[in-house]
Amino acid sequence: MGSLFRSEEMTLAQLFLQSEAAYACVAELGELGLVQFRDLNPDVNAFQRKFVNEVRRCDEMERKLRFLEKEIQRAGIPIVIPPSVPDSPIPREMIDLEACFEKLENEMKEVNTNQEALKRNFLELTELKHILRKTQHFFDESSFSALLSVHAELHHQQMHDADREEENHKLLGDDGPRQGVPMRLGFLAGVINRERIPAFEQMLWRVCHGNVFLRQAVIDAPLEDPTTGDQVHKSVFIIFFQGEQLKSRVKKICEGFRASLYPCPEMQSERREMAMGVMTRIEDLNTVLGQTEEHRQRVLHSAASNIRLWFIKVRKLKAVYHTLNLFNLDVTQKCLIGECWCPVADLEHIQAALRRGTEKSGSSVPSILNKMTSNEQPPTYNNTNKFTAVFQSIVDAYGVASYREVNPAPYAIITFPFLFGVMFGDLGHGFIMFLIGLYLVLNERKLQEAFGNDEVFGIFLGGRYIILLMGAFAMYCGFIYNDIFSKAINIFGSKWNVSAMFDETVKGEGMYQLNPNVSAEPYPLGLDPIWQVSNNKITFLNSYKMKMSVIVGVTQMVFGVILGIFNHVYFRKFINIWCEFIPQFIFLTFIFGYMCFLIIFKWFKYDGDSSAQAPSLIITMINMFLLTDGDMMYSGQFGLQIFILLVAVLAVPWMLLAKPFISYREHHSPHGKTSRYQGARMTKSQQLGDDSAEIIHHDELDESQSTSSDESEQEEFELGEVLIYQGIHTIEYCLGCISHTASYLRLWALSLAHAELSEVLWTMVLALGFGMEGFIGAIATYLLFAFWAVLTIGILLFMEGLSAFLHTLRLHWVEFQSKFYKGEGHPFRPFSFEPILNTDDDV
Which of 45, 251, 376, 624 is 20 to 30 A from 539 (CA-CA)? Predict the structure, then answer.
């Protein structure tokens, strides 16, 4: 299975790149995506690194591109997707890109500013046009005569007050009589947002004490806000008042409510003349606005055809310079030194990429790749494709595998959908799920482009292959259960020989309990369809599915224990084989494996006639642990069970004590001390490449220094700590075998729950329509089928499917992977342009 069975072999390498070729080499490595760089300047501030100015320039260019993208989206112009991803631009191209983006940004800002000013002028003229029209209507209304009468009354009262004031002056001896001058009725006209009219009217009434007269009319068509582009509904108003004091108050209220005031002549002829001038100016503005919008559309269309290419180039530039900031400069300032993790199997591709980068830059000095030895744990890299990636992600969600540890993902490709199918076994529901998965697989590219960024749908699209396999295995298990929407299919014919009473039962006139003694012969494959109409169907299926779950669970756990031996052999930890693998295998197989043997043996030995005399499996296992004799299935069973139990019990102290004391003895023996990394470190012959002319290796002095540092870092052996750790591990394994075996009973429980829920939906929903006759029965069946289909898809397919998925996930994470998998590694995160280009976030 290659690297899928075990992670790729990694090596730490040192890169020596000439300054003029560094950019091109790193860009080629980014296209390759097989190198994970280390930060050699962890204590240096991000603003003090060598290429920080280039990164800032890329940030500025990306800001300008986002501004252009926002303008394009606001204009509703489709953005052209490039047919292919361009290569990383050369550094000299950055100047041209900056000049291009600067020109486009300035042009767009200038166009937007001019267009906003023109639209604001157009809005003012449009509002003035409506004011002139509406005020003319106000002045022409008959109700305006009432306003004039009010004005006359106010004038009469004013004259009366003036006479009284004159008499008072005479009484006081003032010789200068004063005549009351009548005040003219003034007015203000303007436009205000429609939703502010009630509050505006109330404020005028309170502040002016009812001494103003307000008229307002709605503008039918909404007006465009020049700043935001939103459509705003407005109304025209005119306010009549008397005196400068009221005029000042009215103006302040209009300013507070953001109402726009416009000059409006009193004479009708003047208003008509102004309206004609306004219409002429509006026509001229429409022409200018049209030309401005055409120019803006041309600029945006030109940008929309290239903006994705520009984004890719800028992000590649930024990613390369961000990576170059991880490098160190040598003392001559002419060479960049970097360190990276890379797969050993891909060293040739990495060297080829370095050669291409050197050739593109025109440098005459080749780039150097130097392997290094390190005690640091390498990252874990599993080379996957789009099919295996989903299963690898399920494993990595629990914990990334330790370096070169056995990878559970290839086995999960089969076991995961199979265990799901055991719990979700229904031929009909599985077929629907299979069709959903098949649709996602066949249309993955089109769906990825349309809904790839959707959070919920993206999860289903990413797991399309596992949905396809889960549906296929659910169909297989449903065929074994002979269950399709809680009904059976009669393929091979029933193998039961029953009396005529059974014919009446089939016709719905009664229930019949099957007796295994009347079965003629075994059914060829799966369950006999006659069990679906049997009264004791659940009793039979409970026993069948429960035993099947135990067999499947113990088999998978034994397989997990066997996988552990591959880790022990690879890491050369042979003490774990004798002190962990063998006692664990004995304990698991001698107790739970023997229980599975009894289940299968009982199936073969006892038929329908002798099933009543078969001993109970639970009682047999209890007698085994109590060392008591009882009903036996075969001769010599009692003695064999005592032997099996004693060996299984002896395996517990074997697991507990053997490894700590052997390790203690080896540690204190003169030849027992070894490096902590013995066996896990690669030999020199494995590290060196035979056909690598550009690889320079460390000398023996460096290797000896590395070995001495390993020995100096070796920790002192503590027997007490090792005993405690081994005791915890032993107790966890022994109790885990019991609890994990019981945990696999969820296969039986969920399968039974799914079948019963499907049957309930059939009998209580769809069967109601089948029970009716005639035209009413047809209509009822049609309506009930829609209701049944919604419940089936919503509850059984999605909710029950999600429940079975989560239970399958737990069985793999806990019951299976705990037998051999540590998951204490860290993932390999190579420098690659692909994830950078697929996200909108900053690099």
Answer: 624
- Together in a domain, 129 and 212: no
Q: Within a domain: residue 737?
A: no
pLDDT of 403 higher than 50: yes
Q: Do 130 and 55 have their domain in common?
A: yes
The number of distinct structural domains making up the chain is 2
Residue 515's φ and ψ, nearest 5 degrees, are -110, 120
Structure-block tokens of residue 295: 């120019």
Please say if the pLDDT value at position 763 is more than 50: yes
Residues 6+ apart with CB under 8 A from 702: 373
How is residue 19 written in tokens?
A: 């300054």
**134 shares a domain with 92:** yes
Task: Report in angstroms the alpha-carbon separations of 464 from 51, 204, 387, 414, 430.
Answer: 42, 66, 9, 15, 14
φ/ψ (deg, to 5) at 44: -90, 130
Same domain, residue pair 247 and 277: no
CB contact burial 18-35 (16+ within 10 A = b; e otherwise): bbebbbbbbbbbbbbebb
Question: Residue 48: CB partners within 8 Å, gap ≥ 6?
Answer: none
- What was the pLDDT predicted at 504? 52
Identify the domain boundary among 226, 244, 264: 264
**From CA 713, how far away is CA 721, in angstroms rounded?**
18
242: domain CATH number is 3.30.70.3450
Look at residue 646 and tell me if it is in a domain: no
- Band (pLDDT 50/70/90 cuts) for residue 531 is confident
Domain boundary among 232, 264, 296: 264
Cα 641 to the center of its chain, rounded Å: 52
Torsion of Cα atoms, 206 then 209 then 215 then 216, to 10° = -10
Give me the domain span that covers residue 187.
183-264
Are 78 and 122 found together in one domain?
A: yes
The verdict on 255 and 296 lying in the same domain is: no
- Helix pair angle (93-140, 268-304), 10° resolution: 160
pLDDT at 822 over 50: yes
Q: Give the model confidence (pLDDT) of 495-509 as tens digits.
A: 776 554 455 555 555
Model confidence at 547: pLDDT above 90: yes
Distance, CA of 514 to CA of 530 (rounded, Å):
9
What is the biggest distance separating any 2 CA atoms in the chain, rounded to whole angstroms? 148
Q: Is 224 in the same domain as 279?
A: no
Same domain for 258 and 279, yes or no, is: no
pLDDT band at 402; cut points 50, 70, 90: very high
| Residue 68: Cβ within 10 Å count | 22
Tens digit of each residue's pLDDT (9 = 90 or more) over 595-636: 999 999 998 888 766 777 888 899 999 999 998 888 888 899
